[in-house]
Amino acid sequence: MNKTFLKHIPVMVILTSLITIFLVGTFFDKQFSELFVRDGYEKNFFGVFVDIFGVPIFTIPLMVIVTVLYNWFLFSKIKPKTRDRIQRWKLITFWLIVFIALTLMTSIPVMRSHNPNYYLLIWVFSTLIYWTLFGYIFWFFNKKDQRQKFINQEYNLQTLLVMVIFCVGVYFTVFILKIIFNRPRPDATLLPNAVKEYQAWWNISYQNFSLKNESFPSGHVGIAMSLLSILFLFKNKNWKWWTLTTIISLVILLIAFGRIIFLKHFITDVTMSMILGVLFYAGAARMLKKNWLKKWEVTKHG
C-alpha cells in the first residue's frame, strides 16, 4: 500500500468522525443542547472557566512563535561576539514587555464581562495557568540543547510563517462564516424567556441580523485549534509529538464541551470549527514540506 496514503489515514479518520458527528448534530442540535438548559447554567464553573480561558488561548502558540523567532534571530542571525555584547537589561526589558502584553491579552474576557466579581476570581486562576505555560515555553526554548538547535538552524523562518498562516487562516475563516450564517446562540433561543427562535445552521436568515448572532462556527474552538500549530516545530512524529498531540486534542475537546454546556454553542458549531482546523492543518503541513522560503534562511554563523 502507498506510504503516502498510509500517512494520511489518521487525518482521514479524524475528518470522517467529525463530519459524521456534524451530520448527526444537524438533525439533533436542538435536542442535544436542551439537555443542558437548567437554572444557574451561567454560573457553571467549568463553563465560565472555558469562557475565560478559551479566548486568549492563542497566546500560547503566540508565545512559542515569539520565543522561537527571538532565539532564531539571536543565535542564527547575530554573530557570537556581537551576541555577547548585548546588555542583559535590554533582554530583560524585551521579555518583560512581551509578558505584560500577553497578560493583557488574557484579560480580554474579564474586561467585557458583565459579572466582574465571579469572572475575576476565575480569571486569576486562568492567568496563573497562562503564566506557568509562558514560563515553561521560555525555559524550554532557552535550554542548552535547544539553543544548539537554533545555532544548527534546525528551526527556521518558514516554519514560523506557516504557524502564523495557519492560526490566522483558521480564525479569519471562522469569523467570516459567523457573519455569513448569522446563527443565534443556544442561550438566546432555548431558554424559557428566549428572545429569538431556534435556527438550524443551514437555515441562513438576515431578517434579524445582528453581529451578536455568532454561534456558527465556534470562535473558542477555532482559537483552540491554533494550538496545533506548535506541532509544526517537530521534525519527526516521535513520542513527544504524540504526547503533545494528545494533550492538545483533549484541550480542544474540553473547550468544545464547555461551550456546549454553557449554552454558547450547538454541537454543529464546535464540530465545524474542528473540521476547519483539521483541513487548515493538513494544508499547512503540506505547505511546510515545500522549501519555498529556503532563500530567506540565514547563513550559519560561527
Automatic annotation (TrEMBL):
The chain crosses the membrane at residues 9-28, 48-70, 91-112, 118-139, 160-181, 216-234, 241-260, 266-285. Residues 159-285 form the Phosphatidic acid phosphatase type 2/haloperoxidase domain. This is Phosphatidic acid phosphatase type 2/haloperoxidase domain-containing protein. Pfam families: PAP2. It comes from the Bacteria. Keywords: Membrane, Transmembrane, Transmembrane helix. The keyword Chloroplast does not apply. The keyword Transmembrane applies.
